[in-house]
Amino acid sequence: MKYARVLIEHCPKEATQLFIEYYTGRFTPRIEAPATDSQPQTNGGFAAGAANAVQNLSNLLPLSYMNNSAAAQNGVKPTPPDATAKREPPKYTPPRPRTAFSSFIDHPDEFIVFLEACLKDDSLSDSDRSDISTTLFEMYLHKSNEKKGDDTHREEWETRAKSLINTLPNGTTPSPPKPPIENSNVLLLSHLSDFTAGTTLVKEQSGLLFDIFRSYTSAKDTRGALKALRKYGPEEPQLYPAALSYLTSDSRILDEAGPEELAAVLERIDRDGLMAPLQVVQTLSKNAVASMGMLKPYLAGRIERERKEIAENRRLAGQFRAETEVRRGELAELGSKPVVFQAARCGVCMGALELPAVHFLCRHSFHQRCLRGGGGAGEQGEECPVCARDNATIRALKKSQEENAERHELFGDDLERSEDRFRTVAEWFGRGVMGVPGGE
């Protein structure tokens, strides 16, 4: 490594290839017989040593690809075939690639070629692979800023940089998987190079979708904020209330976005129930940017829907009230008036009804022999076979309601997740959760 910089300075491509082979463990030196030289060797200092190193490299590199005839023409003694076949390349442990980084100063193109070749080496450790990836990411960003105003050049190198930190390209796992660069390094390098796509990608992979939207709003980038809203809104619904507050924070922002975007945000908030109407009105009234005309469609749709819900609730309430009165009348008749049984056939065998027969207050009649218990009165009394299944369902529901009435944590959890809390309270009230224990 003593003359590494000099070699790269005078023959960059050949020296870079030599470095790649050496640091990836594929370097095979060629053993030459010592040549007799009648001239005495002189020590010319560092400059002479560097010049000799460059000359030796230029003479050495083509020789490995020469055959015996070409070597003979160049004045090199050919190697016997037997000796070449028996010779094995020496085994060595490649040094860490970081030791060669300083040799590529002022040679970014060769440095990138070296890093890309080293990154393809399967024998790299995770620490070295992460180190090379971080350095290569920095070099890509450096190249992207070389030509100011050339968007094509910048986009090409930024795409390469993005491929290093995008661990899930196109929704699939890369092969082979690359260890991710530390997020702190990506954020720092992206900030220094004004590479916003890198910052956004890291936040996406970390699930910081709200922070991405907030970075656009902080920079007053309305287009970027709306683009992020469309992309991340389905995954992060709370972005819509934040977008409503941002769009109505300044008249210039609202003019840039347009009333259509505000209407779309209000529609999504209304459809998913993200904000109550009072909260929407309070948000829009903070800066007095949105006009009543922009809010009118939202309020009109909301009022119309609530009117329909009220009408439906009133209809259901009337229906339930009528059914309740019917049941109360039936109970009063059973307790005060005689019941006339007019069934002519058995409810089990469907044969003509004959004595002995059993009659139930539900107005079903059976042969005594067709009943399982023979029509006798046990502890609970004989039950109508026709109504037994419905009665069992009602008893199970009643038992479940009695058990859930004492589990107030279920009520609290359901109330916390509910979109219509009044309806939830009414449902649990009907289940007896607020009733007096042991009361009628």
Defining key terms:
440 residues; mainly alpha; 20 helices; 2 strands
Q: What do these coordinates show?
A:
The chain has 440 residues and is an all-alpha fold. It has a domain at 207-308. The chain is built from 20 helices and two strands. It has a two-stranded antiparallel sheet. A hairpin with a 5-residue loop joins strand 1 (357-359) and strand 2. The longest helix has 45 residues, at 292-336. The radius of gyration is 43 Å and the shape is elongated. It starts with a helix and ends in a 10-residue tail after the last helix.
Which strand-content bin applies to the residues?
under 5%
Q: What spatial order of strands do you see in the largest sheet? A: 1-2
Distance between the termini: 95 Å
Reading the helices and strands in chain order gives HHHHHHHHHHHHHHHHHEEHHH
- Radius of gyration, in angstroms, nearest whole number: 43 Å
* Largest sheet, strands/sense/barrel: 2 strands, antiparallel
Structural class per helix/strand content? Answer: mainly alpha
Overall number of strands: 2
| Uncertain runs | 60-71, 169-177
Percent range of helical residues? 55-70%
Number of helices: 20
Average pLDDT level? 77
Shape: elongated
Tell me briefly what this model is.
By secondary structure, the chain is mostly helical.
SSE map:
Blueprint lengths: L3 H7 L1 H12 L21 H19 L4 H6 L7 H6 L21 H12 L6 H19 L6 H15 L17 H10 L3 H10 L3 H10 L3 H11 L6 H9 L3 H7 L1 H14 L4 H8 L7 H45 L20 E3 L5 E3 L20 H17 L3 H10 L3 H10 L10
Antiparallel strand pairs: 1-2
Helix pairs in contact: 1-2, 2-6, 6-7, 7-8, 7-9, 8-10, 9-10, 11-12, 12-13, 13-15, 15-17, 19-20
